[in-house]
Amino acid sequence: MIRTRAVVRVLAAPAARDPYAGPVGSGRGTRRIGRAEHPRRPRRGARAALPAPGRDRALPASADGAGVLVVLNRSAGTSVVRSDPANVLRERLPRAELRFLEPGEEPGAVVAEALARPVPPRIVGVCGGDGSVGAVAHVARAAGVPLLVVPGGTFNHFARTAGVASADDAVDALQAGEGVRADVAELAFGETPPITVLNSASVGVYPDVIALRERLRPRFGKWLAGLLAAERMLRRSEPVAVVVGGRRAEVWALFVGVGRNDRGIHAPLQRRELDDGVLDVRVLHRGSRTGAIAALAFGQRTASVLRRLRLVPERVEAFTSTGLTIDVRPRNGLPPGFVHDGEVALDAPAAASADLSAPGYRTRVRVVPAAMDVYRPAARPVAG
């Protein structure tokens, strides 16, 4: 197991002050996540009444959609309780250019092509899940244009954190010119150009869990599919060996989240902050398969579920950083995949493996503060 003091000194770039520091744990910035350390979580639905994180920021407004391009991903997950985002956009933004993706088209490539026009859009939007949002955010960042996020996927982690719960919320913010400047992370394999990460990135068995979950979801639904996928993969898989700062560990998963997260979250898939300038790292060391299954299957619901079932993983480390380098060793002769914002990356790790003399591949993750402007309704005080 990576020892606490070494983790903070060797693994991490200079870390911001950790608000979790206190009498628990054995070193500053690192925590064993155990039952006694979890703060009381707000009751379900309480967070919706709180202002979204981040400082409000004035952005260019568009009352009717003039100058706005929105790409819509038909293949993203759907919700039976959410109005069709396309209908909302057509009705409220009649002058916006709505570009529906064809099968096989990449949202980032479509936006890049539009931005190369003689008269490019001044605002780009995306309707889809976190993978689509991340791809468009990467291009928007490079072009320096603000991003309009319209929830249109299954999870919509980034949109929910930003305070955009519906297409109407997104349009309200655009028409009022309200937004926030958000941090992102950059993930690079070997010497390849970095990928923009909005929520989290992970290595270990989690990419395998995601791939199997997507195959099982049409039959079982997302929550049961997640549990079955985690159980099957952990039953047949072995931990992944990683080297961070010269120290080796065998882990079920290593998660790097953008922004500090709740201490009770073992798999930080949805961020809690937008502009605190740090990465939040969780390391699920080799240990109980049952605890690891629950942690990977339930995601954001892990803390309460595991406490009730008395299945808290006993070997979890948590620390904050501004950047870290991870060497990933091969498993069964193949480089383990990496997942970022729900998208599984296999080709990039394999290509990076070919560039190293030692087996495996190297990846670097760093936080980029104040990286992009995102539309969201202004965070207003909650009535007492």
UniProtKB/TrEMBL annotation:
Residues 18-57 are annotated as: Disordered. GO terms for molecular function: kinase activity. InterPro entries: ATP-NAD_kinase_N, Diacylglycerol_kinase_cat_dom, NAD/diacylglycerol_kinase_sf. Signal peptide: none annotated. Residues 63-191 form the DAGKc domain. Pfam families: DAGK_cat. PROSITE patterns: DAGK (PS50146). SMART domains: DAGKc. This is DAGKc domain-containing protein.
